[in-house]
């Protein structure tokens, strides 16, 4: 019996030690000052966000969500290997009246949060809003995102999923057409909330399966967190890893390759069009060089005149006719016959008489 009590007590101490806690160096300070926030029992190497929030008490948490906190003056801190941290926080007035708390919550991973009472000196104080009576909804199962990305998402279309969860009515009256708030956040930024109404009635002690659409902006990629809030209280958070739209990257790579190539070809076409050319073009010049050569080689072909010479040539004489050989030339035949007198006084050669 004593051993069992010891085991139970040690288990209780271990469970209490695992609960995250927050302590403040001051319980009250004015705007412009600062306080030191320390914590213990957190997850090792966890990223935390520290904020001063209004209209909140540790028993009810941050009723208005992060919209009731001084987000611009918040601070981030990472716990050590033992789950402890210490961080100086500047004092700033939240956008809503006090009572106020210093709210510490995890940014990524398993959700954990803790609050410590704090009074902002000089800030307005008003009673907390009354808790809604009647029906109350509580998430009974873990939230999940259903759906997949298509080809258009690969080219930059907005990623879309469906947030699915089951809620139960733990109140005393029915809940008709509840309005949920679905928020998406990227990294350490605050969620962007959108109201979505579910059509239906949940009777006391009953449960219902809720499906709400979630959509990001076009080209979104990286680690996102989908949060669900109802009645001013965050009910669940679901991480969402969005892949990079590689189709957009491929498109720009092709643009960087194709456009310069097209511009180069267009420029070369313009240069080829405006540059001076030889007479008759390149091919005509080659033909002009080849045709005279053919005419010189084949002088007897009809229709192919020989090359024109720049210097005038005398007409061929009778002794150079092509159809006479040197031996048969009539002009030389007489010289090959018997010798005779070529004296101009010869009787065979008539003489021209001059005037008396």
Brief characterization of the structure:
The protein is of the alpha+beta class and 356 residues long. The chain is built from five helices and 20 strands.
Approximate shape: extended
Helical percentage: 10-25%
Oligomeric grouping of the chains: single chain
What is the structural class? alpha+beta
> Biggest sheet: strands side by side, in what order?
2-10-9-4-7
By DSSP, the count of extended strands is 20
If you compute it from the alpha carbons, what radius of gyration comes out, rounded to the nearest whole angstrom? Answer: 52 Å
**Which regions have little confidence, pLDDT < 50, spanning 5+ residues?**
1-17, 281-289
Order of helices and strands: HEEEEEEEEEEEEHEEEEEEEEHHH
**How much of the polypeptide forms β-strand, as a percent range?**
25-35%
Number of helices, where a helix is a run of at least 4 consecutive DSSP H or I residues: 5
Report on this model:
The chain is of the alpha+beta class and 356 residues long. The chain is built from five helices and 20 strands. The chain has helices at 2-18, 151-154, 246-274, 281-297, 330-336, and strands at 21-24, 28-30, 34-40, 47-54, 56-57, 61-62, 75-78, 85-90, 100-106, 113-121, 137-139, 144-146, 160-169, 175-176, 179-186, 192-197, 201-202, 207-215, 222-230, 233-242. The strands form six sheets. Strands 2-10-9-4-7 form a five-stranded mixed beta sheet, with no helix packed on it. Strands 11, 12, 13 and 18 form a four-stranded antiparallel beta sheet that branches. Strand 5 and strand 6 (61-62) form a beta hairpin. The radius of gyration is 52 Å and the shape is extended.
